[in-house]
Design goal:
The chain is built from five helices and ten strands, in the order αββββββββββαααα. The protein has about 270 residues and is an alpha+beta fold. A ten-stranded antiparallel beta sheet has the order 4-3-2-1-10-9-8-7-6-5, with no helix packed on it. Strand 3 and strand 4 form a beta hairpin.
Length: about 270
């Protein structure tokens, strides 16, 4: 004989299950470290491959599973900012790295924040594994990254950050102009220097080429290649089309005609 469960008990069972779930989530949330703060790297305790940067700082803003990391580095062109926003627990975080799309899986692992990313760069796919570990006293944040580009050997970086007062994150300084940083600037005069590199990355993707298509390797200021001279004419042409037809908005770009090829597409495929 089947025993019927009174509706009030069904309600109590559901309420009990929800309460248990909330308790588990609360305990998990409490056990996750909060990485928020202003952090400055200690170069003596850090190891980075390639040319070390100057005055590297980060700002971490963490609220529950919402996380934003802003990196601030001094370069010859001025301060370079990169911002990454993550939803912890998601494997579908999207950002950009040097203008390339970046997809990341972010989770807590053994008390540290673990980020697994894949970026589609101009010269292939880059895979990067990162961990962010907070010290027990909350004053040191250790970042470790292993990056692999294609079949090249992995690149390993370890950066030790030390906590700083909030006032150490002063407002950004105006960037230098392109002609103050780079030589032989002719069509980007008066443009912020960081925009020049963004434009170069855009050109390589639009034409499906690398930097040496237009530039002399090791002497980027030289005009020995006809492709570089042609590129300047094309930049001015696109600017005029946009100025005359789209109120200066950048509607026509290299991609409009080239579509990943060195020669413009003249008809639909």
């Amino acid at each position: 004989m089947r025993t019927l469960i009174h509706p009030i008990w069904k309600f109590r069972y559901v309420l009990f299950a929800l309460t248990a779930l909330w308790a588990v989530q609360a305990i998990s949330q409490e056990s996750a470290p909060n990485l928020s703060g202003i952090w400055k790297w200690n170069p003596d305790k850090s190891h980075v491959s390639g040319r070390p940067s100057s005055n590297r700082r980060i700002k971490v803003e963490q609220q529950g599973s919402d996380l934003t990391i802003t990196t601030r580095v001094m370069t010859m062109a001025g301060e370079d900012f990169q911002k990454f926003h993550y939803a912890i627990g998601s494997d579908n975080n999207t950002n950009q790295m040097m203008g390339a799309p970046l997809k990341s899986k972010v989770q807590w692992k053994d008390g540290a924040l673990a980020v697994e990313s894949v970026a589609s760069m101009d010269n292939g796919e880059m895979r990067r594994s990162e961990t962010w570990a907070l010290s027990s006293d909350g004053q040191t944040l250790t970042y470790h990254a292993s990056s692999v580009m294609g079949d090249r050997p992995p690149r390993e970086d370890t950066i030790v950050y030390e906590k700083q007062p909030d006032a150490d994150w002063e407002p950004p300084q105006p960037p230098k102009m392109a002609e103050e940083v780079y030589k032989n600037i002719q069509v980007f005069n008066g443009k912020p220097a960081p925009q020049l590199m963004d434009a170069m990355h855009s050109f390589t993707r639009s034409l499906g080429v690398k930097c040496d298509f237009c530039h002399v390797e090791g002497a980027f200021d030289k005009d020995e290649k006809e492709e570089k001279v042609t590129a300047r004419r094309m930049i001015l042409m696109a600017r005029k089309i946009n100025a005359d037809n789209f109120d200066g908005h950048m509607r026509v770009t290299c991609w409009t005609c080239h579509r990943g090829a060195t020669e413009p597409e003249s008809k639909a495929k």
